[in-house]
Amino acid sequence: MQRRRTQKILAMIPPESSGSSGNESSDEHVDYTSNYDSSSSSLSAKADENELDELLKDFELNPIDEATREFFDSIDENIIEEEISTTNFSPTFVSDISKPSTSGTFPLTETEFVSPQPSTSASMSSKSKQLSTRTSKRILNYNVRTPPIPLPSPQPSPLPEAQFVSPRSSRKYKIEHMQFKWKSEKQFNFGVEIPNYEFHTNNKEVLTPYVYFKRFFSDDIFDLIVQESNIYSFQKFGKSVNISSAELADFLAVQLWMGVNKLPAYTDYWSNLMGVPKVQDIMPLKKYQKILRSLHFQNNDEYDPNDRFYKIRPFLNKIRQNCLNQEEGNRYSIDEMMIPYKGTKAGSRRQYIKSKPKKWGFKFFIRAGINGQVFDILPYGGESTFTDIKFTDYENKYFGLGGKVILALASTIPRKPLSVIYYDNFFTSPELIYHLRKKYGILSLGTVQQNRLRNCPLLDEKKLKKKGRGSYSAKCDRKKKVMVVKWFDNKSVCLASSYVGVHPLSTTRRYNKTTKSRVDVSMPQIVKHYNSHMGGVDLADMLIAIYRTNMKTHKWYLNIFSQLLDVCVNNAWLQYRKDCVELKEKKVMRLKEFRINIAIALSSKNKPKVGRKSKEMCIPENIKIKKKIVPRPIDDVRLDRYDHMPIVGIKGRCRMCKTGQTTFSCDKCDSRLCITSTRNCFKTFHKQK
């Protein structure tokens, strides 16, 4: 056994002529070789076995090399002396990838893996064979996962440690942390009273739903979609579909109806069994499909490789600008919004968030009011998320993705001082809370993760649990004006704020499993503020989910279009409700009724009415008005031979023979059928399968 281990070590020793490719060694390598005297004689492949035995004893006494010893013990016992190759494999290490290798090989790049290179200068014996692939793989794993064998080298500089160069690029900015001086909660003296913002409308009466909707989905958006859709249809199909603004309005009306009346497939709205007359009266199916195929928002010739959402960017920017033009309050919540999408055409734009009801889709960061009205939108596009946003060196130094999202969305707040932002623990850090108040005068509050407390000496969860539900631990930094509170309910939760603390304590009702009744639990003021104002984005998500406009298509950007269409409808409804409160309107439309009113206005406004001629407008006589299509009865009804009675009605075409005209029809099937001396379509229709 001892001899076998000796031979295995010999296979790993570099030859006398080989040397390190670097001139300097790392500090870690010096630690590995510091136990050996550099003046001792070098050990080569021809070393005496007695010297190796002494060396092995030294290895067993050295605790640093326990992993090395276990590595050799784990090698398969079937590998015998004859299996070791005459070619001695010596590991090649990287000490400086920018310098050329002394062995004549090219220098490694950042994405290359450090692999062992064969050395042909040393041999064991003429009877040995070449190393097996399995053995070489073990040597490769050894080079990467364990430090080099601490053997004296014939060169003055020891062998450097093996390195794996990560293919990922290093961060441009290294995120740093501030130092906070946490004191007792009793020193909290930077609380701020936030006045309630009062909305004032300039309208003397409540406007129509269509007018509120056009505040967000303006005429320039109609012009953009019409222009880009016609260009795209010409690029794609060789001819323009010539969509007009009126046809686009009809298309949007159909989409709004589909959100209220949901069916499995969009073709079902025009089917005989499940058709919706309101949708069928707006436009035929083929026209809807023609617009759906051609719907576009950006010229493909203006491709921007740095923008992952370039196909929807012009439309998104106009919707965002219209949202920013509306009157805002002074309390906002910032959170993620998922736009559902399970397709594969979007590539890495599609994200997964397990905590969301719609887990797969596009991730958008939203700044919304506490009533659910969306004010600002920031799509997440990986590295291109902040392409058009500039941050200072200070902000790049202390903030990652979450902090930069808050800064980007907070920059568009019209009245920053004394505004309050609420966000969750994905974004929160003490540095962000301090920076928002110091630079912009924006107050903030959010839950914070335990690893971002910056060494705040709060009580752990076990001690708070012993004190019971409602217990808390709080600290503050008076200089940076940051308050941190850990409150225990069923579990502990940490919150940080720049304007509110623990007092005055309030109470909340919680269910007690022991007494099987609801009991009062004390709650710090910071928790009450968070629960009251954080749910703005979730409320916007809920309103969208009630009557969601689903566009079942392979084009990923149409899902974003439908989501933004719903955002416009919901924002319009929320503004309508505020005006109703301001003007003391008693009858307030619900969201469904409000949405239907917009659909009717889109499909009927400034368009001729089909039906009786009015005095103001004369319809040309050559207009053909289509008659109502009567669906064919299903076979189970047609062939049941029960209660099929002929009646006499208006003359029309026979359903069976297609060429005959008759006044007879079946009362049950509602179908005209011939009964003449030469043919009896009535009988044939109810018998023939």
TrEMBL record:
Residues 208-573 form the PiggyBac transposable element-derived protein domain. Pfam families: DDE_Tnp_1_7. Residues 147-159 have a biased composition (Pro residues). Residues 115-133 have a biased composition (Low complexity). Residues 1-48, 107-163 are annotated as: Disordered. It comes from the Eukaryota. This is PiggyBac transposable element-derived protein 3-like.
